[in-house]
Amino acid sequence: MFITKRHIPRRTFLQGMGVSVALPFLESMLPAQTPLTKAAASSAKPRFVGIWAPHGWAPTYWSGTMPGSETSKSGGDFKLGSIHTPLEPFKEQVTVIGGLDATSSMPPPGSSGGDHSRGAAFLTGAPPKKTAGADIFIGTSIDQLIAQKIGQETLLPSIQLGIEDPGSNTGICGWGYSCAYSNSVSWSAPNKPLPHEINPLVVFERLFGDGSTPEERVARKETKSSILDSLTHKVARLQKNLPASDRTRLNDYLEDIRELERRLQIAAKASSEAPSLDVPFGIPESFDEHVKLMYDLQALAFQGDITRVSALMIARDVSLRAYPESGVTTVYHSASHHGEDPKRREEYHRINRYHQQTFAYFLEKLKSTPDGDGSLLDHTLILWGSNMGNANQHSHVNVGHLIAGGKRIGVKGSRYVAAFGQPTSNLLLGIVHKFDVQNASIGDSTGAVDL
């Protein structure tokens, strides 16, 4: 089958009153006489997501994801551990990496402390310079290396998201280390951390170009109208010239935007009506709703090709947040220091599993969204990781990481990779190579983990 006419440029935006909505990929954007099978494969673009979760995973609840003991060799015949059971529907696109060593990003010989002051090592693979001044230095994070390679054609080369407010953390965050190292996992240069936006309403307006005046935004929010309302006539006019498949895809995309906007309005209303809860305007009180909004925003940004790279901080190190949805009321950091008490260790395991449950929501969203010759999940490589192995002991050995998606990028999936003794930077190097970033090394890497 061939497309007989190209009448929509790929970088088309629907623009209204201060609004600019990028279109998802449509068949009508293909050049004339292009076979659909070939065009679908070439139209999809690779994406990358880095998800940071402090404190690691509860030992023994995830490291049994391969046959035998922790020293088992890599292989595909593995069973997901109980922490990762929510990911069972996506097992074919999940790779668990065990044995990685993050001690290289920890204090140099002769010094100590600051274990919770080095989150930035997650995507840089490098030790931070011990300083509380302006002379911070660590390394460029791989999300920014990837954005330099694949993000220059998009409206936003990358986006940085977070869930917890860093508050007044602008000075020293422990043992003489600048708070910059724990406030951001995304660094555009060794001395330039990028801020993470925690307000989904702000992210939404950034993605969809709400450049209207403050008065117009307030008026629209008061009437509960949508940013799409000013585009109604343009959408109708565009759809007249689209084939049925493109009309369906465009309708689904716009409905996703409208539904997300509705949820954001509910969150904004709830936060404005409960000032005593100290919840900033637009930020849901519920972690569950907050993180799902952030996942949906990333999916929409990828679908509209607004960006192809994102980084998300699920929590802050030494997090004092509780997750009652997990069935545990102990705060995150305290739960990680379980003292090897079986009951408390089980509680921490339940928090870990709950995080994977919300992550599964994101994977399902990507899997159900068509993209080129597959789905968004097929074309998105997602890294979930930490800088802690056994957080109870502040151990940085056998730090668990997880890769999801990336089938069309060449990630094998459905397997366990034993990387005992290898620095975490070896994994980062293996990832950037999947995006044709030809760095010889990342941080203290000694080679590349085969993905």
| CATH topology group of the largest domain | Alkaline Phosphatase, subunit A
> What letter string, H or E per element, gives the SSE order?
EEEEHEEHHEHEEHHHHHEHHEEEEEH
Shape: globular
**Structural class estimated from helices and strands:** alpha/beta
Give helix % range.
Answer: 25-40%
Count of alpha/pi helices: 12
Please, could you describe this protein's structure?
The protein is of the alpha/beta class and 451 residues long. Helices cover 31% and strands 13% of the residues. The protein contains 12 helices and 15 strands. The strands form 5 sheets. It has a 7-stranded mixed beta sheet, sandwiched between helices. Helix 5 (200-207) runs parallel beside helix 9 (287-303). The radius of gyration is 22 Å and the shape is globular.
Question: What's this entry about, in short?
Answer:
By secondary structure, this protein is an alpha/beta fold.
